[in-house]
Amino acid sequence: MRNRSLSSTTACLFGVVLLGCTTTSEGDADAGPDSGVTDDTGPIGDSGTPPDSAASTKLTILGEGSVTIAPGSVYKPSNIDGIPPFSSASLRISIRNDDTAAITIKEVVVTAKDGTLPDEWVLNTPGSTKRKPFSVVDVPVSAGGSTEFGLHFWAFASGPRPATVIVRTTTGQEVSFVVDGRGRDNLELSTKVKSSWQRMLAAPSADLNVGGIVSDGASGFVYSANATQLADVLSRDLVVSGVKADGTRSWAKVWNEPWLQESPPPDHNNETGGGADSIDMSAGQVYVAASRSVSASNSIPASFQAMVVKVDAATGAVGWARGFRNSTFATPDLGENVAWRGAMGFGVDATISDRVLLTGFTGSPPRALLVALDKATGNQIWAHQLDARSDGLADRGFSVRADSAGNGWIGGDENGAAMLVRLTGLQGTTPAIAGAWSLGAGVGSKINSISLASNGDAIVSLWTGGAQRKFVAARLKTDGTLAWAKTWDSGTFGDLNNAHVVRVRGATVFVGGNIAVQAADTTHGDGFVLGLDATTGAYKLGALYYSGKNTDLIAKHMVKGFVFQGTDVFTLTQGTTVQSNLDHYWGLWYQAPNDTLVLPVGDGSGRLKDFTTTPAAVPTSLLSLATGVSGPSGTNGGTAHVINTSTIWKDLPTAAVHGDPKDYSGEANQTYPLTAKLTLAD
Questions:
Q1: Long-range contacts of 6-11 (CB under 8 A, 24+ apart)
Q2: Of 235, 278, 350, 580, whose CB count within 10 A is highest?
Q3: Alpha carbon distance 94, 114 (integer Å)
């Protein structure tokens, strides 16, 4: 595995000196005007002028081997004038000694200025079009001789991106100039969403599809993922990891059995790992919902248990694990029809003091599942199926959320369309349905995440499905009427849009997912955060997580979770490198644009629209699943079976590396969790 470390300070000094090299430009530069972009190619003014150089110097600085760069001037060759953000170009700079005696170059320092980020300009190996860190330190230059260094420009935003270059000798002489690159494509760095650190988890040839993230009850967090080719070659395994507030990993575990075990995703085609609500935390204990096959057939749902595992957030130790099946048999009884006995687990809630709630589906055709397990022991308190319309068509639960008084919601779908069910009595022995509504969002839609407002309203993220997907969040009152529903319209790239998580902090709803918008990555889409007023749905902020669009830079990103820990905000994002991207696993946060053709881009509010939907009541029954009783399909027989985890719950293989994504080189088409500490200025 190769390390590719980038500068994180304003002065970039690196290791060796090479002489007599040549260089070529890299990336997608354009010397001419950009269609629809405001003119930002003029002089940068007083702020772009470095300090006066020493008058006694006998050094001559040459750009590209022949262009004299006067002390105190601005150097702006054509190949750095118009670089798409995250694309790059390289320059070759020569230092010629015009003195009659030898001199020694003490150092060459490049310093970002005027809003430019430190990583945008670095000293580079002469002749390399790739970023290969370099230094000039105590280099002797004979009379009339010369030495060289490279400059690598990585444009991170539109407009001027200047840096000061200073050449110093051991005798105190100094020459300085400004190198001024320009970014194009109308992307502005976000002022409201910024990361202070980023970490990723990855292993050679392995994919880790991202699930959800929760607080660890202290100052850090715990997240989940589904891994392939990590512990098993073919079957997926459940991964759970704890991370401290400073980004260091505290522990990492994998649930590894012969057959498939995962938190199944509430989307299409396993685009991510488990849903954002497949993990929850209470009193320092993390509860993860998953599906565990107990048969080599991996037949859904027949060979599966809907599982909950209780994990200590500080150590990763398992407290208990239970696998629910609609049967007294822990594994399929091959002597009878067992299709209706299997169960799949999707969502979990640990808000009520003495119990954990699990949702998913059981039976064939599926019916939404609702199970209560004792927090202390894992024993089953009660189990039910939800049957919408009594039409024999599929009903599934993907998220369950409750308040401490036992009122709550299940979000999922019925007959392939988004459905929301209001529940009461969840803290007792006889839960009841207070109402159920179809959201009218079309075939393929589903509710994949829920957060509760302080008055009990459900604030949901909506997966819309279909060829033209939409990024949608909505608030429904406890009587099923719509308070508001909003969509952020990215333009003509709707097949790449969708919301994956919704969370509430104070008066703000944060929605995470992915979008594709012109000027960023319209091939695979970018991570997206939308901030809305919790009461009205009004726009507060929008930011996209973008990593470039050249074939060696693209990674598709989907924001899957938020943790609000005091003033800290931690996020979980899924990334997937594509095409020929081997080295670039990270990005930056950019302002969501109103108009991608004209600078400034605006604040993104111009793209927020009302989402047209009218919730309609759906008659729904709550069917009992009596513990330990075998009977007709769908009426009873539900049992939460004990799972012995002594040989199942293991330390993550050492090949799985947790670290800064800037330091990682891997392979194309690799999927990985990306965690970050953010500031969210809502």
A1: 6/119, 6/122, 6/131, 6/133, 6/662, 7/118, 7/119, 7/122, 7/133, 8/118, 8/119, 9/118, 10/111, 10/112, 10/118, 11/109, 11/110, 11/111
A2: 278
A3: 25
Please give the DSSP secondary-structure letter assigned to residue 216. Answer: -
Which token pair is 416? 């392939």
Distance CA(215)–CA(222), nearest Å, equals 6
DSSP-assigned states of every residue in 475-536:
EE-TTS-EEEEEEE--SS-GGG-EEEEEEEETTEEEEEEEE--TTS-TTT-EEEEEEEETTT
Q: How far apart are CA 604 and CA 493, in angstroms?
A: 16
Q: Give the list of residues 6+ apart from residue 181 with CB closer than 8 angstroms, or none.
A: 76, 80, 81, 83, 89, 120, 121, 153, 155, 160, 161, 162
pLDDT digits (tens, 9 = 90+) for 630-643: 444 444 568 899 99
Q: Return all residues near 619 (Cβ < 8 A) that are at least 6 apart.
A: 388, 389, 390, 436
Joined tokens for residue 275: 């849903």
Integer CA distances (angstroms), 145 to 15, 20, 350, in order: 22, 11, 72
DSSP label of 175: E
Residue written as tokens 């700079």?
Answer: 93
Task: Determine the Cα angle at 542 with ends 540 and 545, to 5°.
Answer: 155
* Range of weakest confidence among 213-217, 330-334, 510-514: 330-334
Rounded Cα distance between 392 and 372, Å, is: 25
Could you tell me the pTM of the whole model?
0.89
pLDDT of residue 250: 97
Residue 348 has pLDDT above 50, yes or no: yes
Side-chain-side CA neighbours of 607 within 13 Å: the count stands at: 27
Tokens of residue 567, six digits: 């003033």
Which one-letter DSSP state was computed for residue 191?
S
3-state DSSP assignment of residue 354 = coil
Residue 442, exposed/middle/buried by CB under 10 A (0-12, 13-18, 19+)?
middle
CA distance 582 to 512: 26
- Give how far the C-alpha of residue 543 lies from the chain's centroid of Cα atoms, to the nearest Å: 12
| Cβ-proximal residues to 64 (8 Å cutoff; 6+ apart), any chain | 23, 77, 91, 92
φ and ψ of 494, to 5 deg: -65, -20
Angle (nearest 5°) at CA 132 between 131 and 136: 125
Cβ contact 556:670 at 8 Å:
no
Spell out the alpha helix ranges (H) of 437-476: none
The answer to whether 602 touches 353, Cβ cutoff 8 Å, is: no
- pLDDT at 423 (0 to 100): 98
Which residue type is seen at 28? D
3-state secondary structure of 41: coil
Residue 12 has pLDDT above 50, yes or no: no
Joined tokens for residue 457: 């309203």
Give the H/E segment covering residue 292: strand 285-293
- Name the residue type at position 527: G
Among 41-45, 167-171, 641-645, the minimum mean pLDDT is found in 41-45
Residue 493: the pLDDT is: 76
Q: What does the block give as tokens for 73? A: 């001037």
Tokens 């407002």 belong to which residue? 453
**Region 56-74: what's the mean pLDDT?**
89
